[in-house]
Amino acid sequence: MFYTMNATATPFDPDSPDGSVRPIIRYKPDEPGKKEIVNARWGSNPRFSAGVEYRFVRSEGKTFPAYRCLMPASEFHVTVGKRRYRVTLEDGNFFYLAGIWEPAMAGWPLSFRIVTVAANPEVAQYQDRHGAIILRRQVMNWLDATVPETDLLVTPPAHLFLVEEIDGAPVQKTLAL
């Protein structure tokens, strides 16, 4: 059963260096219906995109009938200038980012891209887009394609996220009168 798998939710930093590896959850290619957790390189094979490695794919106007995956996350990060922010679910739960995996080919390892949606109101103050959030109760809907993509790959409602500065502003050490 899916829920007994050991998927650890960790922070997702879109500024991670090239070649970053993350665990993803997908169906095993050689055993339909059986899920697995595997490590995959974040970013597409540049061989098939004019030498450009893409890390994200926009959801609008696209369908994803196969090669779906999930990346467990406890939070995601946003960088604006020199300031960094952590975005978590307001209720403290972990979540998944919807993804699409690509098989290893021509010397390029198993890889994946994150599917993005327009940012919700809390995140839109900092950036225009973020990864498509798949809540724990929606996991099988994404992997099994039992719910239309247009119902899952949506901008989350307001008040879903808590945004906090990570590196923080300088702390006031004396009382100003």
The secondary-structure class comes to mainly beta
Tally of DSSP helical segments = 3
Which sheet architecture does the biggest sheet show? 11 strands, mixed
Radius of gyration: 17 Å
Based on CA inertia axes, which overall geometry fits? globular
Please report the total strand number as a whole number: 11
Low-confidence stretches: 1-5
**What is the mean pLDDT?**
88
**Fraction in helix:** under 10%
Q: What does this 3D model show about the protein?
A:
With 177 residues, the protein is mostly beta strands. The chain is 8% helix and 38% strand. It contains three helices and eleven strands, in the order ββββββββαββααβ. The chain has helices at residues 121-124, 139-144, 149-152, and strands spanning 10-12, 21-27, 35-42, 56-58, 68-80, 83-89, 95-102, 111-118, 129-131, 133-134, 161-165. Strands 1, 2, 3, 4, 5, 6, 7, 8, 9, 10 and 11 form an eleven-stranded mixed sheet that branches. β5 (68-80) and β6 (83-89) form a beta hairpin. The longest helix has 6 residues, at 139-144. It is globular and about 40 Å long. It starts with 9 loop residues before the first strand and ends in a 12-residue tail after the last strand.
Summary, kept brief:
Helix content is 8%, strand content 38%. The chain is mostly beta strands and 177 residues long. It is globular.
List the SSEs and their pairings.
Blueprint: E1 10-12, E2 21-27, E3 35-42, E4 56-58, E5 68-80, E6 83-89, E7 95-102, E8 111-118, H1 121-124, E9 129-131, E10 133-134, H2 139-144, H3 149-152, E11 161-165
Parallel strand pairs: 1-5, 3-8, 4-8
Antiparallel strand pairs: 2-3, 5-6, 5-7, 6-11, 7-8, 7-10, 8-9
